[in-house]
Amino acid sequence: MPTPKSQTMKPQTAAKKLGVLLAETPEEFRDGVVSRDELNALQADPPEWLSSLRRNGPHTRQETARRLGISGSGLVRAGVGEHLTTDEIKALLDEMPSWLVAERDILAQVRAEEARVKARNAEQA
Q1: How far is CA 68 from CA 15, 57, 76, 109, 121, in A?
Q2: Residues of the chain with pLDDT > 90: what percent?
């Protein structure tokens, strides 16, 4: 019986699963395909380039939003269109502009409402 072929994915998919921007990855990563085994190895024991990207950025929109404590929609409403580095995110958190305070409040209200609905549904079940 022949051995099964390893599942592969496009570099864009692998970068998304790793939580990094494809444009910031090394050229050899962008130009090839990534097998499931290679992806698992990168997740289990990240090389320096991956650790550095995760630590310093630039970060994906989702990671930027998470680090700021707001939603992805909040980033759009605020007009934050580029991918921010860790230092830029820290500067925003230190400055705490009014839009960031408002977006954090909105997310807190949304989460509180989701918790209320979940509790209500659990009571009814």
Answers
A1: 21, 14, 13, 16, 30
A2: 82
Give the whole-angstrom CA distance, residue 85 versus residue 26. 18
For residue 61, which of 70, 52, 51 has the smallest C-alpha distance?
A: 70
Q: Spell out where 1-125 has E strands.
A: 8-9, 34-35
Nearest by Cα to 22 from 41, 9, 37 = 9
What ranges make up the beta strands (E) of 10-122?
A: 34-35
Q: Would you state the structure tokens that stand for residue 46, as one six-digit string?
A: 């990240």
Domain boundaries, the chain: 1-56, 57-125
DSSP assigned state of 79: T
Q: What is the pLDDT of residues 12-63, one digit of tens each?
A: 999 999 999 999 999 999 998 999 999 999 999 999 999 999 999 899 999 9
